[in-house]
């Protein structure tokens, strides 16, 4: 199955971001991708954290969700919509939601980011909990590729990457990590953490990132990656908008899991994943 991790440099204007995303989705489709993954905050990197509140949509209705469904139908793609703000029951806070659409444009999964980023090094300060309401349930979905092979696909977002217990619960063949890592933390840990999640779960990883200088002054690390279950980087892009493509080999996944049956050797239990 050919998978595309889409790297963006989103700004503070919704329509410009959707136009950038559409161009990348079209490019991925023309290159033969079956699944395309947009980055976290693909629709908005605002001037202020509270800008997300003004863009929040009700689940199942709104221009951003309509855009994703329409693009999935038009390009015949499974689309993972990075994240977008969805309304929550708590005033002044939204869910940072990752939505999945099948090639007919139907929504098939929703994951709300569980772990909210908090960081302060004296120069940069972030506290997502000020405007985001965390999710509580791991989410995975089943994807049948064009050959008829069924893949278990696990959802996560950005800061989730630092919590390996989440990925154990997903029990997936392919792990997705849309993200907007800061430049400093990305430079230090991004690839290392992604390769670790691939190796310890014997799973493919597709990580789609924000990567560049944004009009709000923030700089994100980029380095969108596709990684195989042995930790081998299959494809990557350093910075700037673009499409990172690789063919994921089901036979190699099964071969590696047979050669090193580490997943069968687990002794500590984990909670079941939400279907």
TrEMBL record:
<keyword id="KW-0378">Hydrolase</keyword>
<dbReference type="InterPro" id="IPR045254">
    <property type="entry name" value="Nit1/2_C-N_Hydrolase"/>
</dbReference>
<dbReference type="GO" id="GO:0016811">
    <property type="term" value="F:hydrolase activity, acting on carbon-nitrogen (but not peptide) bonds, in linear amides"/>
</dbReference>
<protein>
    <submittedName>
        <fullName>Predicted amidohydrolase</fullName>
    </submittedName>
</protein>
<dbReference type="InterPro" id="IPR003010">
    <property type="entry name" value="C-N_Hydrolase"/>
</dbReference>
<feature type="domain" description="CN hydrolase">
    <location>
        <begin position="1"/>
        <end position="250"/>
    </location>
</feature>
<dbReference type="Pfam" id="PF00795">
    <property type="entry name" value="CN_hydrolase"/>
</dbReference>
<dbReference type="InterPro" id="IPR036526">
    <property type="entry name" value="C-N_Hydrolase_sf"/>
</dbReference>
